[in-house]
Amino acid sequence: MSIYENYIHLQAALQKCSSWQELQIVIGELRNFFREGSREEVYPLFNPKVKYPISLRRGTSDFLNFIQIFVNAEYSPCFSYIPEVIIDLGSYIGLSAIYFANRFPTAKIICVEPSSDNYELLEINTKPYHNIVLIKAGIWSHKTKLKIGKQVGGDWGNILEESEEEDAIESISIADIIEKFKLTKIDFLKIDIEGSEKQVFSKNTESWVELVNIVACETHDRFVPGCTEAYERLFSNDFDYFETGEFRTFVRKNISLIDKVRF
Prior knowledge:
Elements: H1 3-16, H2 20-35, E1 42-45, E2 54-57, H3 62-71, E3 78-79, E4 85-89, H4 95-103, E5 108-113, H5 116-126, E6 132-136, E7 138-139, E8 145-151, E9 158-162, E10 169-172, H6 174-181, E11 186-191, H7 197-202, E12 212-217, H8 227-235, E13 239-244, E14 247-252, E15 257-258
Parallel strand pairs: 4-5, 4-11, 5-6, 7-10, 11-12
Antiparallel strand pairs: 1-2, 3-15, 8-9, 8-10, 12-14, 13-14
């Protein structure tokens, strides 16, 4: 059986899974398929939970991100009203945005991603969704130039630092996003930015923190010490707290949650 024929077989098996046990077996085989190969090999994955196929690169962390979002359902807890505004900081190749767009099709979803390689696939994956808008930039606390200083753990592990290089990455702050889109609230703020969260949570927060209803962040103290401390200091007073997978989530105290909802 050729690589392509094997992949078609796995795709068919994914559509037919009728139990959690069957799903785990198929996901394991797909994980092996995507672990090998070259990043230039891009395959469409047809997920029965979403409207359109998702493009994933072999030999990258793309499929691990798929597992995190669509199998482990790390964003599954949701609030009891339909969100109008979702900001996705560290959108990677768009899988979290696709999850949000399928679950909340009326929400405006704003994605921020600094990596050119990831952004190219982010554009492809989100093109069918008219409620998703993209910003190619690095999220930061203030206006500056950035670069990817190093990569840890795959393509989803780009660590940013300030730079004076000519081809540096433009930065954008949460305050800039609010001004650009004339936002009056942020229903859901998702943050997975490999240590840049310490910058975001430590400086110039006054103009946006009161607009946030729910924030879910994966903190990266192993890359930048003090991330979790800065996060908790900013949100602990007026928010309730819980954890889902790798994400630490704060929910404003007047917001009700639907627990253990799986999409």
